[in-house]
């Protein structure tokens, strides 16, 4: 019977040194600082309105009693009195429509920059990269003018169409595409496939991690966007969650703090869940590539 040699593990790599212990403690402390606002919001969203602003929070005074007093009254107020449910549906509609358009437009643009030869290709790509350096504030006035000229004010399409263009998305996908072996593209061309078929049958299936990463980026951007929806939308029926929170907070008297916190919790928890579910694809899309 042949004995297979046992691999000796490097114990130094697993040894917990004092410096490593200090680093872990510091990272945990920093993470708690960043997580505290979300934890406070989550606790306050389920707490009776009279206990929301107690100092210290009720949860730290008597944890068991505080949890037993949790209620859904804040969510009932937000959904029943402030139409937050409809605002949630509008946010979902605008976000997913914008993501779908972004993936199509950016993937086609990235394909052109990666595989096609045309005059001014390098210059146009530099223009795309340069647009990433422009502050968002400088784009508001021209974007609104174009949307108004097209007659898309107070229309969800006035938000969805601009979201379709992402310079970062073109850059991300183009960098991923150039890692795909060109032999696959040349073989498809020899077999008579045109560019659309190559893009659909070869490029897109091989670039799922990059597409997933771009989708998560766009989800966060569109879902949390407040400025453009506030400028473009007029009717309350089209309001997204961030705009709905602003409308609730604009009340001069008797502000519904409980409903505002509950709506804010819904707005914050959705992208958090999306990232946690798709974090592996997100990391692969940013750091990975197609192995040759």
Summed up:
The chain is mostly helical and 292 residues long.
Would you write up a description of this structure?
The protein is an all-alpha fold and 292 residues long. It has one domain: Orthogonal Bundle (MetI-like fold). The chain contains 17 helices and no strands. Helix 5 (73-81) packs across helix 16. It is globular. The model has no long low-confidence stretch (mean pLDDT 85).
How many domains? 1
Low-confidence stretches: none
Helix content: over 70%
How much of the residues is beta strand, in percent? under 5%
Spatial shape:
globular
What is the radius of gyration?
25 Å
CATH class: Mainly Alpha
User: Which structural class matches the secondary elements?
Assistant: mainly alpha
Largest beta-sheet characterization: none
Termini separation? 39 Å
Task: Explain the layout of strands and helices.
Elements: H1 11-14, H2 18-45, H3 58-61, H4 63-68, H5 73-81, H6 84-115, H7 121-131, H8 136-149, H9 157-163, H10 167-177, H11 182-190, H12 195-206, H13 208-224, H14 227-232, H15 241-249, H16 257-277, H17 279-287
Helix pairs in contact: 2-16, 5-16, 6-9, 6-10, 6-13, 13-16, 13-17, 15-16
